[in-house]
Structure formats: structure tokens, C-alpha cells
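Quick one: C-alpha cells for this chain, please?
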Amino acid sequence: MKLTTKGRYAVNAMLDLALHDTNSPVTLADIAKRQEISLAYLEQLFAKLKKDGLVSSARGPGGGYRLKRPALVITVADVINAVDEPVDTTRCGGQQNCQSDLRCLTHDLWTDLNNHISAFLSGVTLGELVQRNNVKVVSARQDVDSSCTFKLMKRLDKHASVH
């Protein structure tokens, strides 16, 4: 079983939003910088997250995204499901046609694994992840890295316009 980029990016972006959603909306550009995800791709993901009721948006200056529900009630499974990310370890997608259009020997094993994965992801919330020390450390590093990159780019732009 492999979770694709879509699911990973959605969870990373939502966790970033949960970490930074304090007083004002968070821009997708800020999330894109910190998480090194394409802004265009984030826009697609957040359209799905908004449609599923996980985030709300505000337009205009000072606009961006906010969690629509408290982080403690948004599960990782909610995020993955919102972006239509299948988490399935069976070869047949649960259709029981794994081998020559019939059920294979290990179908139940992989179905049981799917159930365990689903239960695990349904039991972990963004709020719980935000409280983890390692998440706080990585987030602080990303904030510094993002800020330094922004300042460097500004200096380079300023220098280029002088010459």
C-alpha cells in the first residue's frame, strides 16, 4: 500500500494550516512556501477540502483559509477522504476479482489491513498532531526557512532592479 502524493500533500497542508490558523486566515502561498508544494496543486486540493467542509476561505487582502472545524475533530482520514485519495491494499479495489476475475488467497488479509489503516487514520486528529513535539520543531524550522528564503529573494530582487 502506498499513499500517493495527493494524500500526503493534503495532510501536510492541513497540518500546516492547523499550526498557523491563529488570528487570521492563512494564505496558500505561505503554505506552499513552507511545505514546498506547488501553489496550483494546493489550490486544487483546497477546493476539495472546502467542498468537503474542512476549510473555509476569505477573499481579498488578508484573505486565505481557516479550518472550518476545530483541529481536534478533523481526522487524517477526513483529509484523505476529502481529496478522493483511496487507501486500499487490495489489488482489486475490494471487488474480489483479484485473480482471474475471482477472489485471491490473500484477499481477506488485505481487506483486514485496509480496515486497520482506516481505523488508525480515523483515530488521529490534526489537533493531536499539532501537539507533538517533533511536529512543533519541524514547523518552527519551516517558518525560519520560509522567512529566510523570502528575505533573500527580496534582496535579490532589489539588487537586480538597481543594476
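The first strand starts at residue 55 and ends at 58.
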